Structure to design on (197 residues):
């Protein structure tokens, strides 16, 4: 399915601007500059579908992409560092939280964590928010091409231990690289299973 047509649908700057909840959705969340846009592009084999930026905090809306008229991908605003005023940053991060709490067709959230650094305090805050919203989420380690394979496996194990007692955490961690394509087939399979079962 991820080889089927995909297109940018819309950006929503408020809950009122969200598309109708008439299709299953999977969402991608993570710290600013963790590689959400790059991962979405690699997932659907498109280079410029989601706009990647070297400047953290550029995504200030929830960006929706339509895959094969059957599934929507949602790119949530990043958390953590953002080159914006605190008021502006809080506004677009609150939008992401509100979306997570009230979206009935949201099947899974993929929380992206940099494989070089693992779960940091801002990620713990995001994990707490996901547990409170009671939405199934799965940790996806990104930028695996920047570390050795053994380090990647060790980080997967350490991450699984950290999330083991979290009520909404899915009990598998994906190790991925948007640059090399590593782990993309597994992540596509996870997203399909989450969306249509």
């Amino acid at each position: 399915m991820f080889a089927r047509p995909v297109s940018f649908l819309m950006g929503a700057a408020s809950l009122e601007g969200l598309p109708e909840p008439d299709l299953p959705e999977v969402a991608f969340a993570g710290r600013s500059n963790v590689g959400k846009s790059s991962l979405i592009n690699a997932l659907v084999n498109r280079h410029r579908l989601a706009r990647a930026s070297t400047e953290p905090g550029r995504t200030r809306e929830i960006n929706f992409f339509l895959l094969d008229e059957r599934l929507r991908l949602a790119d949530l605003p990043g958390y953590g560092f953002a080159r914006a005023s605190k008021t502006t940053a809080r506004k677009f991060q609150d939008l992401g939280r509100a979306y997570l709490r009230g979206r009935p067709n949201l099947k899974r959230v993929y929380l992206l964590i940099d494989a070089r650094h693992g779960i940091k305090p801002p990620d713990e805050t995001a994990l707490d928010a996901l547990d409170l919203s009671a939405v199934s989420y799965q940790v996806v380690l990104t930028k695996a091409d920047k570390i050795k394979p053994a380090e990647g496996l060790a980080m997967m194990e350490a991450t699984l231990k950290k999330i083991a007692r979290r009520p909404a955490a899915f009990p598998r961690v994906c190790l991925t690289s948007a640059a090399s394509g590593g782990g993309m087939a597994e992540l596509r399979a996870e997203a399909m299973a989450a969306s249509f079962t």
About this structure: Residues 53-58 have pLDDT under 50 and may be disordered. The longest helix spans residues 86-101. The domain at 6-196 is CATH 3.40.50.300 (Rossmann fold).
